[in-house]
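Researcher: We plan to redesign the surface later, but first we want a full-length starting point. Tokens attached.
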């Protein structure tokens, strides 16, 4: 038996498929959900994609970045980066629900490096996989505003 594991694009809500069993194409005998493909007039098995949306740092509107962090409630999470000359006292994320912090900030076009601060400890944004090293060798998150 062979199978593939793929990353499903965010805009896909379901996947229709058929299997080869004993050399014959057929529907999945273990899946009760079936649909008729109108183009080919073939019955297909279907899996619906249910996704829990995990909030992450994003650029929802032009030049505005929505920074988000999830952690313990009651923290003082601050933001510093190339746009603040690494000063962490300028921007503080607001706790909008217990343990969920966010800040919407205008940033000019370009690539920006940043980290979050809790006390004196700095850390990269866990919701943003883009990383780089700063000139002083520290790990930072990267976001590009186009």
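Model: Full-length starting sequence:
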């Amino acid at each position: 038996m062979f199978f593939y594991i793929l990353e499903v694009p965010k805009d896909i809500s379901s996947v229709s498929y058929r299997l080869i069993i004993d050399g014959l194409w057929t529907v999945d005998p273990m899946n009760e959900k079936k649909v008729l493909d109108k183009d080919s007039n073939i019955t297909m098995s279907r899996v619906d994609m249910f996704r829990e949306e995990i909030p992450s740092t994003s650029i929802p509107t032009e030049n505005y970045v929505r920074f988000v962090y999830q952690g313990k409630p009651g923290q003082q999470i601050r933001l510093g980066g190339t746009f603040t000359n690494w000063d962490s006292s300028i921007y503080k994320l607001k706790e909008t629900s217990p343990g969920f912090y966010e800040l919407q900030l205008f940033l000019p076009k370009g690539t920006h490096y940043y980290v979050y601060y809790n006390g004196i400890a700095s850390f990269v944004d866990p919701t943003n996989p883009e990383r780089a090293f700063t000139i002083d060798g520290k790990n930072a998150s990267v976001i590009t505003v186009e």
